[in-house]
Amino acid sequence: MLQAADIVIRLNPADDVVIARVDIPEGTMLLRESVRTAVRVPPGHKIAVKDVAAGAPVRRYNQIIGFATRDIKAGDHVHVHNIAMGNFERDYAFCADAKATQHVSAPATFQGIVRPDGRAATRNYIGIITSVNCSATVAKLIARQFENRLDDFPHVDGVVALTHKTGCGMASEGEAIDILRRTTAGYIRHANFHSVLLVGLGCESNQINHLLAAQGLKRTDHLHAYTIQDKGGTRKAVEEGVARIKALLPEANKVARETVPASHLTLGLQCGGSDGYSGISANPALGAAVDLLVRHGGTAIL
User: Fold this and answer.
1) How far is residue 194's CA from residue 188's CA, in Å, rounded to a whole number?
2) Model pTM above 0.90
3) Cβ pair 129, 162 in contact under 8 A
4) What angle do CA 64, 65, 70 make, to 5 degrees?
5) Band of the pLDDT at 37, cuts 50, 70, 90?
């Protein structure tokens, strides 16, 4: 029978279970836990390292993750056949484990693009943003005209279309459209965009003029806006967009990178839908990266 010391992961000293790193055959001795597996355990699954009576809580990360639905013996495979959710008093202890940030004395730097307002970009894009789902195809067709065709503009990282599936068939006032407009404006203002082309249909709830007014935005040399209906249809709207972007490219290409501190960096994180490994691999790794970024003056958003 196998004997192994490093084929499981213990997440907390108080845990009732450890995690299988690999497929573990029946009868494998987990040396560090002094437990022998009762059955085959697939990778990413839990193995009991102590007896848990039926009805008792099961802990992982030293947190209750469920309750034993029958007696669990040390070495058992712990999964949906012997553990289930239950009611218990929860204390989320917000910020109980928070630690003061120890900033480094010599922050890291990167080669960024400093915009006129002082913000630093990591990329230099021209963006095509839609006010409504109906203009998504036009935006994509415009962007497609510049794929692999920017050799004459080496400092432009791309022409990208950002589309969505709303903007019409919705109230022209209220929380939903407010969020859409605020999100759209966030993209328009993003430092990674040298300039933006805002394309609408013309009859949508999310009218371009109302969007701009609500977000304090104005048409400028860096923010162009028009509608498909104003231009006379899809083909003409695409031609208009291509022409405008061609006119923007020479100016966008004039940027130069310079050394800027890591405090300009903001890292956005989003849960990708937890699987058996995210809590023991991806999440801690990203957490460590964020801690490092914050120590150098940067910002993270989860």
Assistant:
1) 9
2) no
3) yes
4) 100
5) very high
